[in-house]
């Protein structure tokens, strides 16, 4: 049978010159094509006899991998299967994800990844990423260079794993979340739909239809790093199979010194890279971000990514709610500054959301910072943060949002969520507390009672994984008779119910930072921005909101149940658009340093025109390029 040869997209992906042969190329996931090696390549790379006769197309390989995946009967087994696929063949892995994006995201990310991380030491097979361990501090630079030498790294995702999703301190297993996040950026940044349709007419249509050929940043240009500074998780400390450093977390000056040493290495060797922080503990997250914000392009996803995606979601929800009110007698209240926000859980995510919304209110509606702060009521374990409460470890950011004693919140006592809802009459209620079920029927009904006629309550239970959500969408929809505008942190099924005798289906948006950080990151990397500014984040969030189905499908007033944010299955296109907007903003405000971005006003205008074109060129697409054997060619991972 003739071997199929559909791997080489002419004029799209340049051929790669590679120096690895035989076993070495088959064992290297960056280059391995498995049965996808063409006859010519098999000959050139010494693979004849190492592979069975038939050459498969990438589509065929994806079909086979998908069938194998579906033979795994639990999400965790599917997660492990995908991890081993990635260890074998990156292009096949990303291609498979691209073809089944919506279905596979909950497998490789929340909620399943939480389970995989919690069992990391027990299901451990093979390491991935760079582990920098505290006792090896003196040789950190050698370890760093060993993994990165000769590589053109653009994206570094790092965690110290103190606050993984909502499941807390996971020690060294936290690497799982950032490996997936690194992958997310890679896979989501863009689908070159039109481009591919024009250039890849020979590719099977299904691949295009299923939003197949996704790209972003070349995986060889990214690095996942775990800073193993110990763990305070007793189960891990007592587990003889725990593979991390089995000591308590280091704190204070030694911790700061260790982190600083790492950041300085990044700055020294990769000055134009984006450094993405994930799932640091709340006491360190803000401090680290503030410390490096002005000196390098640093980004804390839990703070800034969550802030940006939530801002987008609320812009979209307010638009729906104000349209609905347009047909009632009460005022429309279209502005962010016309809302009252309760944020339940004042940790990294909660504070990130408050700061992002506040900054957007100041920039869009012209309020002073202190007036904007007054629109927020922050609630944590000890209840509402107010001046008479003795709060431990209040950060500068939190202080700004503490409510005044003059508002009559009483002495040093716990003011509950219900009490705050009754008194404040919020229009927006956001949960990032890890406190499952905290948005009770009583709280929700109290919120409904406080709303203006015709308004929709905006309720976002954002805690992950799914089991920690502050309420389920189904309950919220029933308690509010179908009025609530909801988005959650993890994926939930749509809610079908009768509203005013009409059959409705409400689609629940996933308000998860993974929907926006690939675009924010792509825009920052594309423009080689010196820093990631608040204005870049706001621009990205507004663009995401514009792309929301709820906005585009309710133009004529009636809310039809469309999701408040774009679907994760559409995230490649969406993140491409967000990335372009963010890069345009970076060029506009002069933080971009890419050689095409310009320094004078005139050059910057030209730079802005250039962004989209540059973005299309930059995208990495998971398709096999042709390989040419060259003993001076690439030989790294
Ligand atoms: N949807 C999304 O994009 C994101 C969701 N999250 C989720 O939000 C949750 C919190 O994450 P982080 O802010 O990173 O953690 P964190 O540990 O920094 O913050 C959690 C906060 O909730 C407070 N809290 C705990 N129990 C509470 C209770 N019963 N009542 C009120 N407050 C309580 C804690 O004291 C802490 O301040 C997690 O479940 C995480 O998965 C976090 C980042 C992004
Ligand atoms: C989504 C995310 O970053 C978290 O749950 O931590
Ligand atoms: Mg996170």
UniProtKB/TrEMBL annotation:
<dbReference type="GO" id="GO:0005739">
    <property type="term" value="C:mitochondrion"/>
</dbReference>
<dbReference type="GO" id="GO:0046872">
    <property type="term" value="F:metal ion binding"/>
</dbReference>
<keyword id="KW-0560">Oxidoreductase</keyword>
<feature type="binding site">
    <location>
        <position position="512"/>
    </location>
    <ligand>
        <name>(S)-malate</name>
    </ligand>
</feature>
<dbReference type="Pfam" id="PF00390">
    <property type="entry name" value="malic"/>
</dbReference>
<protein>
    <recommendedName>
        <fullName>Malic enzyme</fullName>
    </recommendedName>
</protein>
<feature type="binding site">
    <location>
        <position position="279"/>
    </location>
    <ligand>
        <name>a divalent metal cation</name>
    </ligand>
</feature>
<dbReference type="InterPro" id="IPR012302">
    <property type="entry name" value="Malic_NAD-bd"/>
</dbReference>
<comment type="similarity">
    <text>Belongs to the malic enzymes family.</text>
</comment>
<dbReference type="GO" id="GO:0051287">
    <property type="term" value="F:NAD binding"/>
</dbReference>
<dbReference type="GO" id="GO:0005829">
    <property type="term" value="C:cytosol"/>
</dbReference>
<dbReference type="InterPro" id="IPR001891">
    <property type="entry name" value="Malic_OxRdtase"/>
</dbReference>
<feature type="binding site">
    <location>
        <position position="278"/>
    </location>
    <ligand>
        <name>a divalent metal cation</name>
    </ligand>
</feature>
<dbReference type="InterPro" id="IPR015884">
    <property type="entry name" value="Malic_enzyme_CS"/>
</dbReference>
<dbReference type="InterPro" id="IPR036291">
    <property type="entry name" value="NAD(P)-bd_dom_sf"/>
</dbReference>
<dbReference type="InterPro" id="IPR012301">
    <property type="entry name" value="Malic_N_dom"/>
</dbReference>
<feature type="binding site">
    <location>
        <position position="464"/>
    </location>
    <ligand>
        <name>(S)-malate</name>
    </ligand>
</feature>
<dbReference type="GO" id="GO:0004471">
    <property type="term" value="F:malate dehydrogenase (decarboxylating) (NAD+) activity"/>
</dbReference>
<feature type="active site" description="Proton donor">
    <location>
        <position position="109"/>
    </location>
</feature>
<dbReference type="GO" id="GO:0006108">
    <property type="term" value="P:malate metabolic process"/>
</dbReference>
<feature type="domain" description="Malic enzyme NAD-binding">
    <location>
        <begin position="303"/>
        <end position="587"/>
    </location>
</feature>
<dbReference type="InterPro" id="IPR037062">
    <property type="entry name" value="Malic_N_dom_sf"/>
</dbReference>
<dbReference type="InterPro" id="IPR046346">
    <property type="entry name" value="Aminoacid_DH-like_N_sf"/>
</dbReference>
<feature type="binding site">
    <location>
        <position position="302"/>
    </location>
    <ligand>
        <name>a divalent metal cation</name>
    </ligand>
</feature>
<keyword id="KW-0479">Metal-binding</keyword>
<feature type="active site" description="Proton acceptor">
    <location>
        <position position="205"/>
    </location>
</feature>
<keyword id="KW-0520">NAD</keyword>
<feature type="domain" description="Malic enzyme N-terminal">
    <location>
        <begin position="86"/>
        <end position="293"/>
    </location>
</feature>
<dbReference type="Pfam" id="PF03949">
    <property type="entry name" value="Malic_M"/>
</dbReference>
């Amino acid at each position: 049978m003739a071997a199929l040869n559909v791997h080489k997209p002419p004029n799209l992906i340049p051929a790669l010159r590679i120096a690895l042969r035989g076993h070495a190329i088959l064992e290297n996931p960056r280059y391995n094509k498995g049965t996808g090696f063409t006859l010519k390549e098999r000959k050139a790379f010494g693979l004849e006899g190492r592979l069975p006769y038939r050459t498969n197309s990438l589509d065929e390989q994806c079909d086979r991998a998908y069938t194998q995946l579906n033979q795994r009967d639990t999400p965790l087994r599917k997660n492990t299967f995908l991890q081993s696929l990635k260890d074998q063949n990156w292009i096949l892995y990303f291609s498979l994800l691209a073809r089944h994006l919506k279905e596979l995201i909950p497998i490789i990310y929340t909620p399943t990844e939480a389970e995989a991380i919690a069992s990391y030491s027990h299901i451990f097979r093979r390491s991935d990423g760079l582990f920098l361990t505290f006792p090896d501090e003196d040789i950190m630079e050698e370890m760093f260079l060993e993994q990165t030498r000769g590589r053109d790294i653009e994206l570094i995702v790092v965690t110290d794993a103190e606050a993984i999703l909502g499941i807390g301190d996971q020690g060294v297993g936290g690497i799982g979340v950032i490996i997936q996040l690194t992958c997310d950026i890679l896979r989501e940044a863009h689908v070159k739909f039109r481009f591919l349709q024009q250039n890849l007419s020979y590719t099977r249509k299904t691949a295009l239809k299923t939003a197949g050929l996704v790209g972003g940043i070349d995986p060889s240009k990214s690095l996942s790093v775990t800073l193993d500074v110990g763990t305070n998780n007793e189960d891990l400390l007592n587990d003889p199979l725990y593979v991390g450093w089995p000591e308590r977390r280091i704190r204070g000056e030694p911790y700061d010194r260790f982190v600083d040493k790492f950041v300085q290495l990044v700055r020294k060797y990769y000055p134009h890279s984006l450094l993405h922080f994930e799932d640091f503990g709340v006491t360190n997250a803000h401090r680290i971000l503030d410390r490096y914000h002005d000196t390098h392009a640093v980004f804390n996803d839990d703070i800034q990514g969550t802030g940006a995606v939530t801002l987008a979601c609320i812009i979209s929800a307010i638009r729906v709610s104000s349209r609905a009110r347009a047909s009632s007698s009460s005022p429309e209240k279209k502005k962010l500054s016309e809302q009252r926000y309760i944020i339940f859980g004042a940790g990294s995510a909660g504070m990130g959301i408050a700061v992002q919304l506040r900054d957007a209110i100041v920039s869009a509606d012209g309020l002073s910072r202190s007036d904007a702060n007054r629109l927020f009521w922050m609630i944590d374990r000890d209840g509402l943060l107010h001046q008479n409460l003795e709060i431990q470890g209040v950060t500068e950011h939190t202080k700004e949002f503490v409510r005044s004693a003059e508002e009559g919140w009483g002495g040093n006592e716990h003011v509950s969520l219900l009490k705050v809802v009754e008194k404040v009459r919020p229009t927006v209620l956001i949960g990032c507390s890890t406190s499952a079920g905290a948005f009770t029927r009583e709280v929700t009904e109290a919120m409904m009672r406080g709303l203006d006629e015709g308004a929709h309550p905006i309720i976002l239970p954002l805690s992950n994984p799914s089991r920690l959500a502050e309420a389920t969408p189904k309950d919220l929809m029933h308690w509010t008779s179908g009025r609530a505008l909801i988005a959650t942190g993890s994926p939930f099924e749509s809610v079908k119910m009768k509203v005013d005798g009409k059959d409705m289906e409400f689609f629940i948006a996933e308000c998860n930072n993974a929907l926006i950080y690939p675009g924010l990151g792509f825009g920052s990397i594309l423009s080689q921005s010196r820093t990631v500014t608040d204005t870049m984040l706001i621009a990205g969030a507004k663009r995401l909101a514009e792309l929301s189905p709820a906005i585009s499908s309710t133009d004529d007033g009636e809310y039809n149940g469309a999701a408040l944010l774009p679907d994760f299955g559409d995230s490649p296109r969406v993140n491409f658009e967000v990335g372009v907007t963010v890069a345009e903003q970076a060029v506009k405000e002069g933080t971009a340093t890419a050689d095409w971005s310009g320094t004078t006003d005139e050059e910057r205008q030209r730079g802005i025109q250039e962004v989209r074109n540059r973005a299309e060129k930059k995208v990495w697409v998971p398709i096999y390029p042709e390989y040419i054997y060259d003993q001076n060619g690439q030989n790294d991972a």
